[in-house]
Amino acid sequence: MSDTTVHGSRGAQAPLDASALHGASEVRDWIALLKPRVLSLVVYSGLIGLLIAPGSLHPVLAVSAILCITLAAGAAGAINMWYDRDIDAVMKRTRARPIPAGRIEAGAALGYGVVLAVGSVGLMGLATNWLAAAVLAGSILFYVVIYTMWLKRRTPQNIVIGGAAGAFPPLIGWVAVTGSVDVLPLVLFAIVFMWTPPHFWALSLWAHEDYKRAGVPMLPVVSGARETRRQVVIYTVLLVPLTLVPWLIGFSGPVYGLVAALLGANFLRHAWAVWTDAQDAAGVSLTGDRPAKACFRFSITYLFALLGALALDRLLLA
Ligand code: HEM
Ligand SMILES: CC(C)=CCC/C(C)=C/CC/C(C)=C/COP(=O)(O)OP(=O)(O)O
């Protein structure tokens, strides 16, 4: 092989590599519009709903149902990013997102979200049943219209009411299998509903400057850090007994009950640490919000473990 050929092939490869890299980062941006990290737990909770439901779905249809939940929640995230592009541009945490950073055009992101939303609902109806498709459509509308467009910029209760959108996936997984609603998936809905405020308000304790700058009335911005700490404790106290309900009403065995109690005790410990964190008179942390950061991280592990324990108990030990 001559030198020229070697150089020639390198010369031909360089622009190819550059365009491949560009292509890869473009793909990453389109994936980022789906909020993939948050999706992990949303989809997992949908999968748990599907696994613990009585009856079964053909594996191809079960995979399709999970794909639909993934695409629908991702679509809702993309439409949320389209609508929130003005505030996302102001907040440090979100300003590098594809739309505010100018890497994806706002209209294209909206089109992408709408196509995925309609496609995922249609596919869910065809693959499973139309009640599951209707609940899926309702959850997209809830997140986009009720949370993002209506409550997020108006009231600190945005998380409590609007957060219900994130509580739908276990119910959707269940309905995809059974075609009907039952008590257990409603209890799971209530659990995720009650989990959302401590999950988010723990984070908001150290992220409130961002929200203040963007004019979003999150609880610490409107009512201060002390009240936010109090609400984290209140919702965790309400959450823990609720997680015991599947065991108390006979939908699971004592293994789940024990795991739920242990996890709950740990969550309460974290919430209490948030409340008793060293703070100034306004409730602002003097420790760099170490307990709030630990509480937020634990909230995620907590929900993964709690739902996993329920599924293991029902599938393996029942
Ligand atoms: C209105 C309700 C909620 C709000 C405002 C909220 C907000 C947030 C924020 C701001 C983050 C920080 C990092 C990021 O931007 O990715 C986060 C992380 C996270 N949230 Fe939520 N969340 C809500 C509900 C939920 C629900 C229902 C789930 C799943 C069931 C969930 C799962 C997660 C997960 C897994 C992370 C960690 C992502 C990572 O590793 O970076 N969230 N949430
Ligand atoms: C099946 C289906 C459609 C489920 C919906 C699941 C879902 C996307 C839940 C909401 C979770 C979430 C990331 C809220 C934060 O929104 P935000 O706008 O306050 O967060 P941001 O500031 O990071 O954009």
Automatic annotation (TrEMBL):
Q: What role does this protein play?
A: Converts heme B (protoheme IX) to heme O by substitution of the vinyl group on carbon 2 of heme B porphyrin ring with a hydroxyethyl farnesyl side group.
User: Which Gene3D superfamilies does the entry mention?
Assistant: UbiA prenyltransferase (1.10.357.140)
Name listed for the protein in its UniProt record:
Protoheme IX farnesyltransferase
Gene transcribed to yield this protein: ctaB
Query: Which Gene Ontology MF annotations are present?
Result: protoheme IX farnesyltransferase activity
**Catalysed reactions listed for this entry:** heme b + (2E,6E)-farnesyl diphosphate + H2O = Fe(II)-heme o + diphosphate
- Report the subcellular localization: Cell membrane
Q: What pathway is this protein a component of?
A: Porphyrin-containing compound metabolism; heme O biosynthesis; heme O from protoheme: step 1/1
User: Matching CDD domains, A to Z?
Assistant: PT_UbiA_Cox10
**Which superkingdom, per the lineage?**
Bacteria
